[in-house]
TrEMBL record:
Keyword Calcium: no
Keywords on record: Disulfide bond, Glycosidase, Hydrolase, Signal
Enzyme class label: hydrolase
Family membership noted in the UniProt record: Belongs to the glycosyl hydrolase 27 family.
Reaction equations catalysed: Hydrolysis of terminal, non-reducing alpha-D-galactose residues in alpha-D-galactosides, including galactose oligosaccharides, galactomannans and galactolipids
Residues of the signal peptide: 1-19
InterPro entries: Aldolase_TIM (IPR013785), GH (IPR017853), Glyco_hydro_27 (IPR002241), Glyco_hydro_27/36_CS (IPR000111), Glyco_hydro_b (IPR013780), Melibiase_C (IPR041233)
Segments forming domain Alpha galactosidase C-terminal: 343-419
Full protein name: Alpha-galactosidase
Organism: Monosiga brevicollis
UniProt xrefs under CDD domains: GH27
Listed PANTHER family: ALPHA-GALACTOSIDASE MEL1, ALPHA-GALACTOSIDASE/ALPHA-N-ACETYLGALACTOSAMINIDASE
Pfam families on file: Melibiase_2, Melibiase_C
Amino acid sequence: MAATMVLTVLAVMASMVAAYDNGVALKPALGWNTWCTLSDCHNGDNNYFDRCNEWELREIAEAMLSNGMHDLGFQYINLDDCWAAQERDSNGNIQPDPSRFPSGMKAMADWLHEKGLKFGLYTSMGTETCNHGGRPLPIPGSFGHYAEDAKTFAEWGMDYVKVDWCGGELNDAQTQHTELSKALNATGRPIWLELCRGYSYDPIPDYVTEVAQSWRITGDHQDEWSNTKTVIEGFMIPSNQAGPNQWNYGDFLMTGGPGCNLNNSDHCPFSSDDEYRTSFSVWTISSSPLIVSTDIRNMTAVMKQCLLNKQAIAINQDHESTPGRLIGQAADANCIASDLRTGDCPIFGRKLSDGTYAAVLLNFADQGTRTVTLPFNWLGVASNQTMAVYDILEQKSLGNFTGSFTAKDLNPHQSIFLSLTAA
Ligand code: GLA
């Protein structure tokens, strides 16, 4: 198994296509996005009500600056759908909804930049965005205006653009993504481009690395386990490329639960704290961008435990080592596995640039506890090497182990995020 995984890792490195390096994406992006915090992104039935406006954005930014997230590197404040007015101006320029952003986008960007933060927004490759935000008319997408919109975004001072795949004129994702990417590049302002949809997730096409800094690896991440599970399965696909300037993105992290901010929050939280810890741990070890879409103005205990965990964020940002990958399915008697990607006890692992290791051991089953053993040679560690094992989220030492470490009785959807250092 160990030899197989080492070969797989090398093969993936060798197959990487040249990344599009515009100077902004050496490390995975760390930030926040409006979509789930300020609307109900759980339902997936167009029952959206995006209330984002410049006052809320400032509050979120102030929270990021004061709650410890910015100290750990969180810096992007990203608008999702529904920020734009329903019509372009008389010159054909896209414009913000004046009732929500009366000061305009440039003023918002200037304000964020003065505070040491970065600003991002959302558009669509097609003629319309994906949602109306409860308003009667569609919101314009960028089709037919890629160059003009790129110029507008750059003039406003945008640092990040997420591009969706909605509206008419969705013809060829590679051609259209390339056109937008070139238009952004031509502005001279380095802007992080996130691709959201429009291409196959399995396998992800190579062209994405040449045009963008990150791309979603699955559909929308919603705040409930069956959906979280599909994203984690997306991180298991071995063909995904990831590394400096090219990051696999698992969509928003819903750590803490978006429902907590809604007036009608009768499902608060949607996921359990174990599930939030598991999604955070897999996104983190895989070096996914960590774009949080929960209410960071009110940090709950699990949000602090995850989002303010210095060691975890450092692992996520360790661009000099290969991002974590699925390294096996545990062979314990209670762990039923049919193949590498399908089983009750998947294990993600990576070697870090300082010579230490990290691993996430999961109970992927819906019923019953699982005891999950990580053989150290799956990480490339010699079987006679003693390792000091540390629980990253609980911030506690678990002792010294030789050959393997066993996590006993993990509850359904629970995981343990470990660091391992030669003792
Ligand atoms: C799509 C995207 C989501 C979000 C919404 C906004 O569903 O996948 O991430 O941006 O559109 O309308």
